[in-house]
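The protein record quoted in full:

***
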Amino acid sequence: QVQLVESGGGLVQPGGSLRLSCTISGTIFGINMAWYRQAPGKQRELVARITTGSSTNYLDSVKGRFTISRDNVKDNVKGAVYLQMDSLKPEDTAVYYCNSYPSSWSWGQGTQVTVSS
């Protein structure tokens, strides 16, 4: 069973940066991956996705500020996906999760990102 472990969240001031990491207990070679987030009282939403060929798509509100990347080594026994978040805004506050795209694995615990002065 694939396990997802997200890390790198924290409290940051508006305009600051964070880099989120996600470790997957299995290879992600050949699998499209994504970051999602869920703010209090809201549904989980897709933030960014990356294909096996490293093509990317972003939620309009994070375009130009967030960058998704991935490990793409075929023989890795563990996969990794990253989300570089710059120019953070209070509305980016949420719990961030990684998963395949579309999501097909059990969700990890997520990592809390709080943007506040």
Observations:
- The mean pLDDT is 94.
- The two ends are 40 Å apart (CA to CA).
- The first strand starts at residue 4 and ends at 7.
- Strands lie at 4-7, 10-12, 18-24, 33-38, 45-50, 56-58, 66-70, 79-85, 94-100, 111-115.
